[in-house]
Amino acid sequence: MTDSSTRSSRKPPDRHRRRWLTGALATGLVTGLGLVPGAARAAEAEIRNVALLPSDDQYILTADVVAELTPLLADVVGRGVSLYFITEFELTAPRWYWLDEEVVTRTLTYRLSYQSLTRQYRLTTGALHQNFTSLDEAMRTMLRIRNWGIADKAALKAGRSYNAALRFRLDVGELPKPLQVSALGRKDWNLASDWYRWSFVAGARDSK
Q1: pLDDT in tens, 8-37
Q2: Side by side, which strands form the sheet with 101-115?
Q3: Which of 42, 88, 108, 190 is most solvent-facing, going by the fewest CB within 10 Å?
Q4: What is the pTM of this model?
Q5: In this predicted model, what pLDDT tens digit does every residue of 180-194 receive, in sequence order?
Q6: CA-based angle 21:71:143, to the nearest 5?
Q7: Which comes out higher in pLDDT, residue 50 or 208?
Q8: What distance in Å separates the CA atoms of residue 30 and residue 178, rounded to the nearest whole number?
Q9: How far apart, in Å, are the Cα atoms of 141 and each of 58, 112, 127, 176?
Q10: Average model confidence (pLDDT) for the chain?
Q11: What is the DSSP secondary-structure string of the chain?
Q12: CA-CA distance, 169 to 194, in Å (whole number)?
């Protein structure tokens, strides 16, 4: 797994996506979200099964994210709009005399898109691409964080206690501008977890 804070460059929207966005504006989807009838359903995400363990030369993070796309988000990506998801990790060292020391910050960015010609979903992180025949398969892969290198072992002091935090969220700022407007204050665009926080002792075999 590759962590990256640089998002993949996006291609100019194709004719199908432009036509859908234009239609969405005309029918009130962008302002009223008329695509999904009834009350907006809040999207939720939860971090589980977190472990931060030393390997030969670095500390490795594994975790599971429990989440699913709302019908609105699933429809949006199926119509050719890419969705960007970010997993954020922070490691700080407590200091009694001042603010906590920021030791490590990492981000892992996924781009979820649909390829209409091949009828496949694609996950992109950094220079890596994976194709899937279904949205569920793509989501399962994205939500299973495995072997994510967080920090070199030499960067942390063995036996010292650290505070770790992890969260997962949809990056609404990467949506096309009209959809960013519609996402403001709308729960069915809000796919995000709370920060999952735990204490971590460098060098310990079980650091959950």
Answers
A1: 444 444 555 555 454 444 334 444 344 443
A2: 128-132, 120-125, 101-115, 83-93, 161-170, 196-201
A3: 42
A4: 0.77
A5: 777 776 777 889 999
A6: 105
A7: 50
A8: 6
A9: 23, 11, 16, 25
A10: 81
A11: ---BSSPPPPPPP-HHHHHHHHHHHHHTHHHH-TTS-SSPPPP-EEEEEEEEEE-SSEEEEEEEEEE---HHHHHHHHTT--EEEEEEEEEEE--TTSSPEEEEEEEEEEEEEEETTTTEEEEEETTEEEEESSHHHHHHHHHEEEEEEEEEGGGS-TT-EEEEEEEEEE-GGGS-HHHHHHHTT-GGG--BPPPEEEEEETT-S---
A12: 9
**Residue boundaries of the structural domains of the chain:** 45-201
Contact 84, 109 (CB under 8 A): yes
Tokens of 63: 């975790």
